[in-house]
Amino acid sequence: MSSGHIQGAQSTYRTMQVLRAIAGQLGKGVSLAYITQQTTLSKPTVHRLLQALMAEGMVERSDKEGYFLGPECYALGVIANQRYGLSQIASTPVARIAADTGDSAFFSLRSEWHSICLIREDGSYPIKTHVLQPGTRLPLGVGGGGIAMLAAMDDDEIEQCLEANAEECAACFPNDQREDHRPRIAECRALGYGINRGSVVSGSWGIGAAVRDCHGRVLGSLSVAAIESRMQPDRQRELGPRLVKEAQALKAKIRKAQMTR
Questions:
Q1: Cys staple from 145: which of 53, 62, 221, 237, with CB 3.0 to 4.6 Å?
Q2: Does the pTM exceed 0.90?
């Protein structure tokens, strides 16, 4: 590969780092200093990339609030949703799970070594957990859905994922280190669903089941989150198989939608 191709790939990677740093704040403006810290790129490099992204409408800047994703990002997202349609397909089972359980239900999408929450529906129970919101990006293995996705991957891919996320988990998720993941993976493979026992926020528990695409690859997860008192063993045994069943049904719907395109 020529040096020009390598430099071009590096530039694309850095551009995506900047966009993800902005997106990670879920619609809030971010500063140049924050983006520099999150990406570990130099300040001049981040500034140069931001200028290019603003010129293309991918990023906007407010003097008071900082940098935001721009309208071109929204337009691309709308077009991508027309191709994949995941939000529309997954919204029905998520709403059904929330209504039936009374708790918060989610669909999260795998994005390489991370998951991104696409859909959240809250049930009727008045006390809720607010850790996971649409747009929240987490390393795979973090949260009930993240555990399920990680455990559904093959062993070599799991090792790649743990290595790729080691630095982020060490800095931001002290209860989700490599040694923490292994027993959770084993448990998930034995049960068929992942259990988060408050590793991100104490008292906020979750259960998740992996969703695969028509080729058997890990696509995302369906999950439920609630306060600890509503996630005791009896309820885990109730919710886990329910999520697995919903995940299998969602896979079939996705397959049908892909075949009709």
A1: 221
A2: no
